[in-house]
Amino acid sequence: MTTIDWDAAADSFDREPDHGLLDPAVRAAWAGRLTSWLPGEPSRVLDLGCGTGSLSRLAAEQGHRVTAVDLSPRMAALARAKLAGTRAGVLIGDAGRPPVRERSFDVVIARHTLWLLPDPEAALRHWSSLLRPGGRLVLIEGVWSGTGLPAERLTTALAPLSESVQHERLSADPALWGRAVDDERYALIAQFTEVRRHREVVDVHLILRRGEEVLLARRSGTGYGDGLLNGPSGHVEHGEDVRRAMIREAYEEIGVRLAPADLRVALVMQHRGPGGQPRTGWFFEAEHGVGGEPYNREPHKCSGLSWHPLSALPDDIIAYCRAGLDAYRAGERFVIHWHEDGDPVAHRPGGAGRAVPLPATSGGGVHHIELWVPDPGAAEKSWGWLLGELGYTPFQRWEHGHSFRRADTYVVIERSPDLRAGAHDRRRPGLNHLAFHVSGRAALDALVRRAPEHGWSLLYGDRHPYAGGEGHYAAYLEDAAGYEVELVAPDRHIAP
Fold it and tell me: What is the distance between the alpha carbons of residues 369 and 150, in angstroms, rounded to a whole number?
């Protein structure tokens, strides 16, 4: 029903015995129930979908300070008149999102209101946030001619939110309704007896790298995000640490047998799906080739596996996964990804960005590196390609130079007006070379193969990839201007 509908119904609303409580026996029956549901001492009570304020009036007469909320201006006006002379206040607003502050009430009560809301579970989550520690939620609902909310549905929704849920059958008490009823009517009293601890599901996600590509799986038959791509992932089970959970999930989903040494933490993301509860995801990185060739071990949940360039990810992908991979490519380590309730589960190209990177401790870290070069255009072709492959993105550009940024660090390539004549010589006193981490051997080998196309030459080819010594898997490259870089990959095959 709309606001106009409720306004039209307001003047005749109290004719129903359980609405107006005009019959002394009906009024006494509801007063007795409220006495058992509400605290014995004066408390702050929020009555949502209050109608003409009959229950609010009873609660106020029992010494409670009541705030009543209704969407209908006409209903609210009648409630104000009924509550005149009490300390109760009446607000106009949506019962699902009432215009009140969180943690402000000892009791939230709603009678025959929840079933009218488009998302009852979301409303319960929000209503629980309005309670003070130790508060309670009183729901009076039912099922009439197939319409309404079964008690089992609400009990299930309340279980993770509250400490306990009490069920009272109301259908058998004709005094409450002014007549005998044969449908389902009940009350649920959800008690929050302690300060509620924050609880979250913990996810693990695998970023399996094949050079510059990542492995994705297309969901099927799961009931969530079916038809969309997602990385191999799952929940941490009771008693597991996140690394063991990732190893288990990788084998269960794609048949890869990873060892602890094969995994590196890529980032940690706290996420909330549309209308869902928060969860924390640990994203791990591993190289293709370790643990065997991946294949689809769960065809009942996955319609196929596919490789995709990290720099050109598809759009038909779970938004949570896409945000994690985008953050990983940008070099972020800690991210919050918080959906609004109306957001889609799927990634939405051009939509509002929900990912918020959190800065890590940076004291003493490298802020930026500045290279003075004789030809910024030529340097951009070599350095721009290499830095892009390493996850840097174009940052700033000016007349004599440009920069590339990855997280909190950036590299400047410029021809300064103060540059002295002469070629760069890394063997002279000063900076010899820059060294960068590479995710793994396969990624490093791919960079070495492509480097000559972008102006880089391999140094120490007779000792590559162990020019740095045993246990140091690396490539040393030099550009046309004589600048050297070292690319270093972890090598699980060589003892440290």
Answer: 64
